[in-house]
Amino acid sequence: MTEPVVHFDRVTKRFGDVVAVDDVDLEIEEGEFFALLGGSGCGKTTLLRLLAGFERPTSGRVLIGGEDVTDVPAHRRPVNMMFQSYALFPHMSVEKNVAFGLKQDGLPKAEIATRVEEALRLVELTGLGGRRPDQLSGGQRQRVALARALIKRPRVLLLDEPLAALDKRLREQTQFELMRIQDEVGITFIVVTHDQEEAMSLATRIGVMRAGRIVQTGTPREIYETPQNRFVADFIGSVNLLDGRVVAVDGTRVTLAVDRLGINVIVDEASAEVDTVCALALRPEKIVVSIDEPTAPNRVEGIVKEIGYLGASCIVRVRTGSGDVLQAVQPNRQRDLSLAFEWDQRVWLSWSEASGVLVFE
Amino acid sequence: MRGRATVIAVPYLWLLLFFLVPFFIVLKISFSEGTLAQPPYLPLYEVTDNGEMEITATADSYAFLIEDPFYAEAYGRSLRVAFFATLIALLIGYPMALGIARSKPPWRNFLLMLVILPFWTSFLIRVYAWKVLLQGNGAVNAALMALGVIDQPLQILYTDGAIYLGIVYSYLPFMILPLYAALERLDASLDEAAADLGASPLRVFLAITLPLSMPGILAGSLLVFIPAVGEFVIPELLGGPDAAMIGRVLWNEFFANRDWPVASAVAIAMLLFLVIPIMLFQRYQERPTR
Amino acid sequence: MNVRRFTALSFGLAFLYLPIVALVVYSFNASPRVTVWQGFSTRWYEALLHNEELITAAFLSLRIAAINATIAVVLGTLAAYTLVRYPRFRGRTLFTGMVAAPLVMPEVITGLSLLLLFVATQSLIGWPESRGVATITIAHITFSLAFVAVVVQARLVSFDESLEEAAQDLGAPPWRVFFLVTLPIIAPALVSGWLLAFTLSLDDLVIASFVSGPGASTLPMVVFSMVRRGLSPEINALATLFIGAVTLGIVGAVLLGRRSPRS
After folding, report:
1. Per residue in A19-36, pLDDT tens?
2. C202–chain B Cβ distance below 8 A for any pair
3. Which of B3, B39, B270 sits opposite C109 (nearest CB)?
4. A36, A102, A125, C231: which could form a disulfide with A44 (CB 3.0–4.6 Å)?
5. What interface predicted TM-score (ipTM) does this complex get?
6. Running DSSP on this structure, what letter comes out for residue B207?
7. What is the CATH architecture assignment of B68-258?
8. Nearest alpha carbon to residue B230 among C58, C207, A185
9. Chain CA centroid to CA B62, Å
10. Are chains B and A in contact at 3+ CB pairs closer than 8 Å?
11. A165 and A28: one domain?
């Protein structure tokens, strides 16, 4: 087992009365593309700044490559950061900006020049070295910031909301760009983001944060398909949460009585004890909408209250007899028309036993 | 942390030594008794031969200020002149600031520079310029006679009118700059929204522009009013020999009469008058804003 | 631009500039009587060149103004940095007040209080031996540093602190961060602060009159005594030189600013 490249060892950070980071214990392995995901004020940026050395933890230790850097100032840490605002020095050319880190290390001029050129090529900015930051577009600035942070070949690259300032189209393009670059340089990337789609598509592993704590870590698929609690289920994507009580357990097959809908739901690959109060987290795309009563065991009847057309799919909101509204997503498989159902029509919702997951908190 | 302490300490000590301490010395001397010596005041207490401390502090200088109507008149005149000069500067400065704020962006900086430029030339010389213009046979009288407004030269120089003119002229940029800063920030679409909702241009001005530029009005007025109250050069050069304004009185008490305790008391009393508008302004600025 | 606003602006600017234009015109007047035009002449400029008192005073003022501006920029920048970056330390309220107060303090009071200080220190520790350049400079620094602090503060408030963090992150220790990043970025504010302090010092009559001693007369003090004695065409010439220098300086600054565009 190799040493993790980053280790937060029970780190807590308080600002006055506010606990920004609350007893976080987290290990990140060499070569990972790790995303810290959470809403604003959840402590994700503070965690990043603790790693960069801009904040000192109130308690706990920060280790990089097995070495305790808790008391090492920012300028001596082997990590570099790409700032949300990019923080390009406005009084320096692109070249000078990128070369800044190497200059601080006192490298010979010739080597700096070669490596700057190399870095600019990596981010496809060759030939723009003489420009000033204010003569660049938003996307170009973002890439200068990236080149500047990468040029020192840090152990870990920190990216604070790297795509937030870009427009949607550029954002998608840049996501793949970031992945390509990480692949090329082989450095561990830690990205902070509030955008779950960004985290899902970029990262090899995600840590979901809430109120200073990491509530779940896992691959994007694990986070999405097997959320460990209501918060994660609700925060990542949309979800239907059906509250109920476990009435029967047969191996990994659990039967949940959902009183509000008046039905029993069967969940496979679950583990729970009888009488536990919990909820079924069910993604909208796992629900099938049909007019005729389906044969699937998990089904409920309702009335279509809204249909939202999204192009690739439709969101259907169905009100059940109890008044609860469930949401289903149906792909638009055909161009011409028209789903088989309309507003105010009576329909059936059904889903398979393996498509939902039980969440307890 | 040592760096931080130095950064704070250096300007802090400078200001303590050269701003706060001198202020307390003024306060102290205002309670001293004058004397014919160097320096011309007595200490606040004396240690007598048998080791007892004898307090010699006195409020005589303040009593003197209150008893002699000359000082009350001087304060009254200073406040009056400063107030009306501020008002006139506001009436001239507001349309100018609005004009600059509403002109096209490339023009704004140019116009603003035109307003500031005179400030960079010597204050003394600008006041002197009016002394030249306001002479009995100066340009202003000549122009008025040529226009047929008057038949013979008016006595403008050495009147309060000349003082008003001097103050308004000298401090106009200080009025325009904060007004401009406040007006420039106003979103033009606010006016359009008000107009769209049926307000006449006058109502738009009274209901939208004026209230939203209030911080600029107050800041500009304060920047004109405060130096105007203590002004020495303008009344000295443009006002009549008996136009007693408080800055001039202080100067004369000090240099001509060599009465340091009274000069100090005049200074303290002047500060008291100025503290009130400044505190009101602070309160206004610190009130919770949206 | 609408007509009313245009009129207001034109009248206002005319009001600001007519006296200055008049001075410039009169400075080329051959007549010794200031207000009577008698033909073009540069005789007052020549007279100015031979006015030893005025020239000595001018050099003294320039020297004081330059020293004052330089020290005031250092102290004012430290003060501004303190106010912006250190939100909490003991005595901050007093400090904030002391930085702001000189801005609104009537000159006569500043002058009087500093003179009384110098008199007191002289009798206590024997310093200053005599009042002159040093006391005037100290007095000027005290009020100019407040103006510098305001200018620099405005720049520091809008300063993106992540720029400093970025430099630190890339391996620069704190003092290099300050000299490589902070200082160059706030440099325009330091230049304006310096010019402002220089002008304030060059312009000050009242405070200098209080704290000066025999033999140290600044340019405004000499001009003031000339003006008091009566109108003098030489002052017109001096004023014109002044206005010319200021105009050149500002036009130069604008051109320089245009050459290196900055966001």
Report:
1. 999 999 999 999 999 999
2. yes
3. B270
4. A36
5. 0.90
6. I
7. Orthogonal Bundle (1.10)
8. C207
9. 23
10. no
11. yes
